[in-house]
Structure prediction request, 670 residues.
Amino acid sequence: MMSTQTKKRNRIVSLHLKTVAIILLSALILSAITVAVSYHLYSNTMYDHYKSLTSNLAKTAATQLNAEDILRYYEAVKQIGTYDDDEYWGNEEYKKEYDAKADAIKDDSYYEMLDMLFDIKDNNDITYLYVQKLEGDMCTYIFDADRADDRCQLGTAHEISGPVKEAEHPENGIQAFITNDAYGWLCTSVEPVRDDEGNPVALVGVDISMDDIVKERTDYLRNIIIITGIIVAVLCAVILTAVNKALVKPINMLSAATSSFVKERSSESKEESAISRLNIRTGDEVEILSDSIQQMERDINTFITNLTAVTAEKERIGAELDVATHIQSSMLPNIFPAFPDRYEFDIYATMDPAKEVGGDFYDFFMVDDKHLAIVMADVSGKGVPAALFMVIGKTLIKDRTVPGVDLGTVFMEVNNILCESNSEGLFITAFEGVLDLVTGEFRFVNAGHEPPYIYRAGGRFEPYKIRPGFVLAGMENMRYRSGSIMLEPGDKIFQYTDGVTEATDANNNLYGMERLEAVLNMVSDKKPGDILPAVKSDIDGFVGDAPQFDDITMLCLSYKHRMQEDASDDLE
Amino acid sequence: MTWNKETENGVLTVYLYGSPDSESAEQALSEIGKAASGAQQLVLDLKELRYVSSAVLRLILKLSKKMKKKGGVTVSNANESMMDVFRLTGFTDILRIE
Prediction:
């Protein structure tokens, strides 16, 4: 019990755990994707923004510059010649000399334009702002709005490189691009300064530092993570609660209720079952499941009740059949040899009951020491009523068969008594015979039963036609007439019930009287104890696997020797 | 086993069909028994009956008792093996055969 409970608790946690895990995982993945995507979009937007900013600034600066003045400065600087970089920066004297020549070129107009450039630079967080003149592979600085010492002096020239070099018409400007090198992470835009005819004369370069982006992006990332985190956390809590209420909790209730079903049934408590107390109203398949389980419980209970009743009924019937079978088998004389000290005759009888208990019976007894009675009878109907009726019939016949009384009278009396207590409407076909062991006279009476087979010494078994007579217990006040035949020592009598002749095989063929006669005549010289088994095995061979419907009852009497009169005197 | 009842001029004729078993014989007994109480004569037509079992014999016996004052039961169209059974069981003594 304990381990099932612990298992149960684990199962509860794990369903809950599963939903929590799945929801959190989904939320996490979703937010990660959202953050990544928006971060990426934000970055791109920033880049685009910076690029257009840079372009616009370069364009603005370009429009403020005077193309003709720039050309003038350029020509002037060409006169003095561009300087040697290493010399300029290595040699103080050289530097001073060159600076003086360059500064001489700069007039008021120059400084006005330079101021304007500084204005733009200072007001717009620009890192580098410069104006260059392109010629062939070289570009020459005209302006460099840089207050640092290492600013490019007018006339600084170097080979073009990078995007400027790659461009087909660099004089028309270069679309904004981003580089990250010795100068730093910069967004650069190059725009042309045009003269009055619109021809490009010089290039304005604007470099804006991207370093700020890093900070802004980091801030953005942090903010969006926090916001997403909060929203997702709240959403998860709400979803989890909802899922728990709508799904996990009802399912757990169902699970608990169905688990206790078996326990409740075996404890036979009269309380309402856990299942019937369920009240799940989620308005979805879970509710349908709950209703189905409640219906199923009702159906199961009904089924079990019916099954119990049916099983009890079957057991009762089985018990009844057992009683009937017991009555049958215990009533008939079955100890053989039956009269070991009587050498005058030999007798053997068997009764093989069918699956459904019938009412066949045989009987044999000494009426007195000179007379032997045999009885063969068949009660109509099956089960306990037939068995009980058999007991009554057998007892009555034996009781009424006394020395000196005519067998017809016996049957008449037995019949009337049987008719009195016969509400079931059963009847008995019966044959009784009494053999006088001294004279060999065999008297008999028949009440609707099969005629016996009689074997004459040296002859064969043949059916002996006798007056049929009406059945016993059919109608009151029936008269029965007895008959008689003289037997010689060596003769045999064989009696049976219709279970023998009506034994059926799988194709519904009957064993019949011809087969019976044939097998009897194959073993006619044997003693009764061997004749009956031979007949039985012939019947079995014929029937095969088909079920046995009726009792197979047989009796064989062999008259061996006349009884000696004087011997009987001794027995008296 | 099934059966059909026909009444004409106070004669109730019952046609029996199929194979008899104890259940259908019980039902036949109660139904025919009730119908027979109003009839002057009862005839059992056995032409379509497959065979005569002990259940049929019991049925005939009980109906005979009911019809004792009205001359008993008449059996018609019994085939040879049915007649053998009637002879063997002595029912020929209490039945009218047609």
In short: The interface with chain A takes residues 22, 54-55, 57-58, 61-62, 64-65, 87-94 of chain B (CB under 8 Å).
